[in-house]
Every structure is written in C-alpha cells, then in structure tokens.
Hints:
The protein is an alpha/beta fold. It has 2 domains: 4-275, Response regulator (Rossmann fold), CATH 3.40.50; 282-457, no CATH class. It is 28% helix and 24% strand. The protein has 15 helices and 22 strands. Strands 2-3-1-4-7-8 form a 6-stranded mixed beta sheet, with helices on both faces. A 5-stranded mixed beta sheet has the order 13-19-18-15-14. Helix 3 (44-55) packs parallel to helix 7. It is globular and about 75 Å long. It starts with a strand and ends with a strand. The structure holds zinc ion (ZN). The site of zinc ion (ZN) has 3 residues, from loops.
Amino acid sequence: MKPRIAVGAIFTESNHLVGRMTDMENFERTEFRRGEEVLAATDGVLGGSIAALRGRGAEPVPLIYASAVPGGPLTIECYAALKADLLGRLQAALPVEGVLMPQHGAAAVDEIGDLDGDLIARVRELVGNAVPVVVTLDCHAHVTEQMVGNADALLAWETYPHRDSYSTGARGANMLMDIVEKRVRPTMAMAKAPVIVGGYMGSTDDGPFAEFMRKAKSLEQLDRVLSTSAFLVQPQLDLPDMGGGALVITDNDIDRAVELAAALGHYYWNLRSRLETPVRVPAGAIAEGLQIDGTVLLLETSDCVGGGATGDSAAIIRALLEAGVEDRSLAMVVDPESAAACHQRAEGEDIALRLGHKLDPRWGEPLEVTAQIEQLTDGKFVYSGGIWEGITGDMGASAKLRIGNIEVLVMSKPTYDWADEQYRSAGMNSEGAKFIVVKNPMNYRIGYDGKFRAAFPLDTPGPTVASLRHVKFQRLARPYFPADQDIPGFTPRILRGRA
Ligand SMILES: [Zn+2]
C-alpha cells in the first residue's frame, strides 16, 4: 500500500508596519485550494511537493493550501478559520505516514504572533510524535523555537530573487520520504544572530548574503549532513527573538548539527555591517546625483507597493522641490483624491493640490503644490517584464502634473512596479531624465537595466524601509543590529530540534 502523506499549508509573509490586516478575502483573492484542488497544483512549491511525493510512490492526501500576497498580520478570526479547516481535514485523514507543509515561515497573527510555529505545533499534537512532519520555508522566514521543536526537518529556498520554490518543494518531499522509509533520522539545529536588515543586500547572486549561502551550502558535502538552510529574516515583522542565520540537519548527530550551525551563526553575525542597506538621506542623494553625468534612480523602497505599502509617499517629490532641481525628473505618488480633482479640470490648467500621505498618514504630511495638469489618463498600462509580463495594470484615473521641470504621476490606485510602464503610459519619458523615483528595492535592477548611472536607496519613513535602524519595534527587544552595532561576548542563539 502506498504511504499516505498529508499536504497542507497557510502561506504568506506578514509586515507589521503596514496599516491593514490580512483577512480571508486576501487569501480568496490570491490562491486558496481546498481538498482535491491542492493536488491540481503543477508549479511553485506546492507543485514541486506533489510531483516529488508521487515520484516516490506516495499518495498525497490534500488538506488546504491558502496563500496570500504579503500584507499585515492575519486577523485572529482569519487564522482561526484557516487553522480549523486544515486541522479538521488532517484529523479526518488520519492515520497518515507523514505530513508535508509548504509554509512561508514569516507569517504573523494578531495577538498570537508566530503563525507558522503555532500551526506546526498543532499539527504535531494531532499526529503524535511518531509521524514525521517536514516543512519547507522561504529564506526570509522567522525561524522560531516552536517551528524547530515540532518539525522533523525544515528546508528553505536557496535563491533571492526567488526562483527555486518548485525544487524546494521536491527537496522537502524527498526528505520526508527518506524519513518514512527509515533511510535517515534527522537531527536539527538553528543558530540565530539578531541581524535585522532590509533585503537590498540579500541577493543570492552576488554580495554578502550570496557568500553566506555558498558557505552554508558547502557543508552539505560533509559526511552525515543532510541539509543546510540560510536565513535573512523578513525585517518588517515585529516579533520576539528575530534574526537571521543558518539551520543544519544531520543524520542522527545533534551535537554535530549544533556545532556546524553555531559556526555559521558567528559567521552571519560578522557579516552584519555588509548586510545593512547603504541608505542616503534624500537631500544627500540628490546632491550626489547632480554630480553624476546621466540618470540617477532614487529608490524610495520604504513605500514599496509590492511589499504592502500604499505608494502614497510624497517625500522624494518634496526633496526634489526643496533642492530646486532644474533638470527634468520623474516622480510618482498614489493619491486618489488629487487624481479625481485633476479629472474635474482640463489638460493645460493649473491646480493647487495637497499631494500624498492620505491613504497611510503615519509617515508624513501632504505636500502643498501648485501644478499644471499636462495629461489625463485612464491609468491602464501593460507590464513589459517580470512576473506580470504582458498583463494589464490599472492605476485608475491618473494625471501627469508639471511642477517646474519635475513631472509627477498622480495615480488613483497602488500598482506593483517593475520598470517605467506607469510613467510611459502617462507620456512621461524616462529616457534622458535626471532623477527617476522608483518604489522598489530589487525589480529596478532588471526593469531599468542599462538605463541609469547610479541608484540610491533612500532613508525615508514608511512601512517597507530599507534600513531598520530607526524603526521602533514593540516586541523585538534590544540588543539587535543595527540599533546595536556590537554585542560584547556575542554567541548565536541555538534552537535544538526534537531528540
Ligand atoms: Zn522571501
């Protein structure tokens, strides 16, 4: 008889700094599979998990797979409903020979905190100690005691930008089947260092995190090492004991797992300064940019719509005006009220506006300007690349304003940004512009490839900040980097797996 393996997860990444909570509607709108629909997945981490389980001769038993785009923590009600659904189906499916959970690992619930740890612990309670539970994670997971203490193995993806979710699902499935077939007895240790940094230096293609990933992965060549994972924790969570580091799984040798993980934890701590995003204040970036011959991108990563922000910051527009920049420059702001006011008027007219900081007013004051309405548009544009290549984006009623030589795109709705599609759709030409405001920390590298001379991440307030230096965490306690540059006598915190 085929071994029956339960498969289910609640997959999302939470951000405590965004204003709104995640509820059931966010899951319904993204990807919510129930029962047999789980088995129909052919790509992503779920597709990789199912295909590999079948390849190993197992029968996947579907629970639920609920996935939502990154946003605020889940409401208690939303999590309770999802958890009851998943656990109810698991209860009904018992007995099973194993459980495979393709989680993200950085999800939070209002009041409860660590979603992933809570869910894994409840699954463990239900199946008992003898049934293996394997969990796959994003490398931005917040790995906790509850997760390490209740799973048999945790495996994270190895790339950022992420492109190996399918193969990670397969790795998780193969690890689980190796346990079920009694080929291995995993023993696991996680070493954490309290390094809270933005994703800007976290690429696995080059730079310090790539170096750390290679170091961790090289240990997989050693005798009795089954798997290693490197983590750079999602920094916009606000939970106790956050940090990055590495997790090592050995075959029935916990001491060796602890020893190897601890060494990686020290290595990670020593990388901390290089992992910090090199931010500039807007005025400094503008002054420096004016000395550079060619286009300079001003990265307002703190207002990244793709990370859950509203896109309504006018901080860089203010800085460009205060600096008296005379070269033609492009900026954008989401402000439905101002966009509607422009659409009451005609192209060519002047209008007085208070721009921005209305959807999420915590990060700044609206900017008072008088501008000329140059162009009114319906806000439709087509993505030229990235995950939504060829798809039509919708900014809602939008306007191109002119304030001196600063061209400002005012949009009604937030849209994920890839390259300059939003600007181009309103007749704003990025070619030859001096400064271009970009609201993402990673896509611009491909989206604007070959079109800029320098790109400066800026230190501006917002829910998706580049540097966590000035964020007032409520639950994360000191000391941590970068609030504390050093911790005398530092040793990584070790989380040990089940014996
Ligand atoms: Zn991630």
